[in-house]
Amino acid sequence: MSDQKTRYEISADELNNRMERQQKYHEQPIQRAVAVLEAALDSVMKKLGVDVDQDPENVQMQMDDLGIDVRSIDDPSMPKACGFYVFLHKNGDIIPHSWVGDARLDQMGQCWCDIQVFNDDRLIESGGIKIFGS
Q1: How big is the chain by its Cα radius of gyration, in Å?
Q2: 89 has which bridge partners?
Q3: How far apart, in whole angstroms, are the C-alpha atoms of residue 126 and residue 47?
Q4: What distance, in Å, lies between the first and last C-alpha atoms of the chain?
């Protein structure tokens, strides 16, 4: 057998290099953007009295006890916008509390999430971390 490679074969070093680039330029930025989105949603939950540092089952129990409902935009009953809606259930009524938008990049390469608090009529930017590079 010859040591010649066909055009469909790559060396172990090339494969390793491609996997490192995939991690650096694709997977890490996505993980950082998701962390910004989760932090924005956590900040809304904290203001509503949820201890978000607990395990997911306890967080869900707290949300149920406080009457908090988080719905994603995939819900067909929701208006079309990217992100999550937070509702409060009080006295049989469903009250819209806030909207947490999807993570977005600004011109400086920093990742942000918008939080719209309906009853206060204010928009908060959360995040501001660089997701590309170190």
Answers
A1: 21
A2: 94
A3: 14
A4: 44
